[in-house]
Amino acid sequence: MIYLDYNATTPPAPEVVSAISSALEHAWGNPSSAYCAGKTAKTIIEDARTSIGRMIGASASDVIFTSGGTEANNMVIHSAVEYFHSFDDKSVFEGSSETKRLPHIITTNVEHDSIALPLKMLSSRGKIEVTFVRVSPDGRVKVTDIMAAVRHTTCLISVMMANNEIGTVQPVRGIADALATHHTKWNPEMKILLHTDAAQTIGKIPVNVQELRVDFLTVVGHKFYGPRIGALFVKNLEAGAILYPMFYGGGQERHYRPGTENTGMIAGLGKAAELVLENLGAYQDHMESTRNYLEQQLQLAFPGRVQFNGKSGDVERLPNTCNVSILGEQLEGTRLLQQADNLQASVGAACHSDKRSEPSPILLAIGVEYGIAKNAIRLSVGRETTRGDIDTVVASLCSAVHRITAVYNVMCNK
Known about the structure:
By secondary structure, the protein is α/β, with parallel strands linked by helices. The chain has twelve helices and twelve strands.
C-alpha cells in the first residue's frame, strides 16, 4: 500500500523516535525541579525551543509549547479577544461608528476548522463579530479584500499560510505590509494582530516569521515528521507581547501554558525542527519533482479527464500537494479510493472524514462545480515517496476507474 496522505499526518522520522525514546528514558524528571533529573529535562526542553525558533527565524524566547495546532489557534483567538477587551475602559472607541463594542476578527472561507469553528461559536454567542473573506477561484485571498473588511473594532486577522487540501500559499506577507501602512485614526494604541497557521508549510517551504512579519504563527509537529504536539510563536513575548492564557495552573511556559511539560514529545519536536533546518531544500525539491511527476502521469493515464483543483497559472502551491478530480460518472472520490487497492489517500481534510459523502467545502468555496468537487481526491507526497510509488498509485487508480466504469455500464445496459 502506498501512502499519499502526508498533509493529514506524517510518520515520525527515525531520529525523532530516537529523541523521544531517549528523553523518556533519561529525562523523566520534572522540569520544574531544581535537582539533576529536573535540570536534565529542562535542558532538553530549552534546546528544543531553540531549534524550533531557529527553524522559523524566531528567538527561542518567543516560542510556547502547546498540545497541538488546535490549542495554539484557539489560544490566538482567545488572546485577541482579551486584548480587545483590555481597551474597554479606555477612550479608544470614542468616535467609532460601530453600534457594539464587540471584537471583530477577519479570516478566510477556506480555513482549518480549528480557526473557523471557534470563530463561528463565539459569533453565535454574541461574543465577537467575524468576517469570512472569500478567496479567489485560484484559492488565494486578495490582500485588498482582507483590508476592505477592516473595521474600527478589528483586532485580529488570521489567514493560514497554505491550504491543507489544495496547497495554495496565501499572501501573508502582503497582508502584513498592508497592515503596516494602515493607520487607525480613532485608535493608535490598539494594533490589528496578524496570525498565520503554518501547519502545512513547515518542512515543505521556507517559513520565517521575520519575513512574514506576523504576530503569531502556529507550529504543528505531526505535519513535519514530528510528534503530535505543537508550538506557538508570539512576537516579542519576553517584552510583554499580547498573549493571554486559556487556563491556569503551575506556571509552566512562563504562566502562559501551565501543565507539567511533555519532555519526550518536546524533544521529538525539537529533533524534527533540526531535520527541517538541515534538509529543507532537499525535501522541497524532492517533493515538488515527485508531485509534478504524479500530475504528468495522471494526465497520461486519463487524457482530457483530469482537473487539478487549485492549480492556476503562477499561483504558488505547496510542493507536495495534488488535488485532482477524474472526470466521469460514478467516479466520486470516496468510491475511487475504496476501489484503489494500493493507495491510501483522502478526499480532503482528515477532520472532515465524517462527511466523506459530501464534496469538500474548500473546493466548493473556490468555485469548483459540485459534481467535479465530489470526484476529487487529495494526493500529498512525502519525503521518501518515489516515482515507482507514483507508478503503482496511477496503475491502481486506472484499475479502479476501469472497474467502476464497467459496473456502471452494465447497470446502464440492463
